[in-house]
Input
Amino acid sequence: MRYLALLLLMVTAACAPTAASSPLPTVSSPTHLPPPIPTTERPTPLPMAVVTPTPTSTPTPLPTSVTDFPDPGLYEWRTIASGFRKPLDIQHAGDNSGRLFIVEQRGVIRILQNGLVLEQPFLDITDRVFDRGNEQGLLGLAFHPEFEHNGFFYVNYTERNGRTVIARFQARNNVADPSSEVRLLRVEQPYPNHNGGGLAFGPDGYLYIALGDGGSGGDPLGHGQNPNTLLGALLRIDVNHGDRYQLPPDNPFGNEVFHYGLRNPWRFSFDSLTGDLWIADVGQGSWEEVNFLPANTPGGVNFGWNVFEGRHPYSGGEIPANYQPPIFEYSHQWGCSVTGGYVYRGSMPEWQGVYFYGDYCSGKVWGGLQIVATSDETAVSTVLFETGALIASFGVDEASEIYLADHRGAILRLTRR
Output
């Protein structure tokens, strides 16, 4: 087992919410611009006359985070389904149905339920998805927190002219209506690569959208360091108000951008227990990185691209304002393209608080941990598994068990041997 360790530098602060209506914009990329954590309800007191039985046992609560990794040899990534066509996202609907939704790059979403892949697709929009480029296609999926009641879900896809589309659809039972599409955003993409693609609802109820810097190599149009473009950024919108959406009042730049300085964020997630944010950002030619922000960090954080690649100078120049270096990085001797994952919150206590991420090319899976001592806080990351998979994505189910998608067609789950 090989070990990588880095000190964690963190930005902490508080955050508040605002509003602004937005029509359906087609956003052009400038060519010369420079660079509540879930609360627990207090139980209702019992009336004085009520006598409750003495419990026979008290469940042992799961730890918030372990302080060391278990022996990975006692675990495996077991294939639970196969036969998918280029799967690259795994999501659940949060509706207690037990379903997993597998996104295929060509423009189809399939349902995996009770170990079986349903024959009828949940959604088929191959008629409008362009997937000829390696980084184009149907790239991301997020279900509205009230999906069980409103049937809304959101996708990120590349349309046939190369633009990124963020759209809402509506479903009933196991089928979504392709004609229910409402387009929220269309973003011009100057090149066919670095589209990003991830979507997720944050603890604040807003929809977050990850977009890459627009492509080519080295960020020739300077999008990463320009918060006035939507490229190279993590966007944040309020889909519960306005015609299609509103801008949250505390978005720092008066537009959809919440954080910026990203090259090609390939998967981000929020810790389902703490609300912390994790973003994996694919590097240029030498370094892959994972970024971390504590819950409630205000907007405006700059992750450094293209001034930095990982923690290393790339284009040069002064350190940007509000720069946040990555919590983890690894060189291309370990792989070539990072895939972000999730903090484990499932049933195995020995993995609690471990952030899983991997590499598309090498098939390695890392575990990351924050170890809090009395006087300091340290982050460590360790290679745990050699899967041999083309790791396109990770996902979790409603019980917070973790999965990965092999781009060659299989879905695997972390289990004890």
User: Anything to note?
Assistant: Helices lie at 147-150. Residues 1-58 have pLDDT under 50 and may be disordered. The two ends are 19 Å apart (CA to CA).
